[in-house]
Amino acid sequence: xxxxxxxxxxxxxxxxxxxxxxxxxxxxxxxxxxxxxxxxxxxxxxxxxxxxxxxxxxxxxxxxxxxxxxxxxxxxxxxxxxxxxxxxxxxxxxxxxxxxxxxxxxxxxxxxxxxxxxxxxxxxxxxxxxxxxxxxxxxxxxxxxxxxxxxxxxxxxxxxxxxxxxxxxxxxxxxxxxxxxxxxxxxxxxxxxxxxxxxxxxxxxxxxxxxxxxxxxxxxxxxxxxxxxxxxxxxxxxxxxxxxxxxxxxxxxxxxxxxxxxxxxxxxxxxxxxxxxxxxxxxxxxxxxxxxxxxxxxxxxxxxxxxxxxxxxxxxxxxxxxxxxxxxxxxxxxxxxxxxxxxxxxxxxxxxxxxxxxxxxxxxxxxxxxxxxxxxxxxxxxxxxxxxxxxxxxxxxxxxxxxxxxxxxxxxxxxxx
Length: 417
Description:
The protein is mainly alpha-helical. The protein contains 12 helices and 14 strands.
């Protein structure tokens, strides 16, 4: 789908941009990060607790997942890099030390899926998704601190993925291995996933990880593999007729799912452009931009509710799930800002503003802190844990950090009115 050429100088209300900037900054530094700073560091075992209940009570005995810990590392490393507060550096160091000590397999390499509260391995699977998030967090800590060891660990994980998980087709990876890097038959991330051998979700986060690693390690082979991942999205996962991404595939990348994930569509729209940007290829970027804007327009047309929030998904049966999960709201905020910057279509900026108002009024937990994991269509929250294996600070903290960076850019456009 070709996107019409438009005036690339956005016309914006500077007062509204300034208001939104202050709102986002307050949410990040006054709600999200303070919650994780106060509620999650574990004085008993070190690192961070694996669960905080709906009432805000930490559970220090809960098991700890690689995904949560890698995302905590990324969050505080990124916050320190952008906001320069020493307390964020200390928490990133804490997360880095715990991952290095307990999640890294000292014999076979890679990161374990799950450890007990005391650090003993509970699930030694080497899921590609978890390795990708470890690369993402380690490379961000390298960006923030200059820590050479973190970059070397990220490179080692990358080399393990390429050795054991690249399947011989460009931009294609198997999903999971056992501890000794032998392929597994059950590769699902959770019981909710389809039992298929390839997933968009895993590949999206490999792309995200390789993009960040390339920033600190501009290796030629890494560039080749990152480019192949971008092409795999454009050629196999993106549906030009619909403006959506497929979710599950067979080994030959034939679609095996009809569901639509609005959150993943809009998240991919800006992560694909980020990958093209670090590669520095103008022709590739132009192709990706067309796809990114198509994904954003389809999300805006089909996935946004009357109150400005983002629906969760359309399932395999074609039924709309109207729950509002925290992470699609966060990704849509970035995705709509990105689409506005790329297209100068004010509809996208208006969508970002309306979505932010919803987030602040409904998704944010004003009494307990952080965001509710899920909210019903009528605005009432589910009694979900505030922190668990999947509920993390990465999506909403990143949305705020990306929002601040992008809004600051908009505030410095001289022709804005």
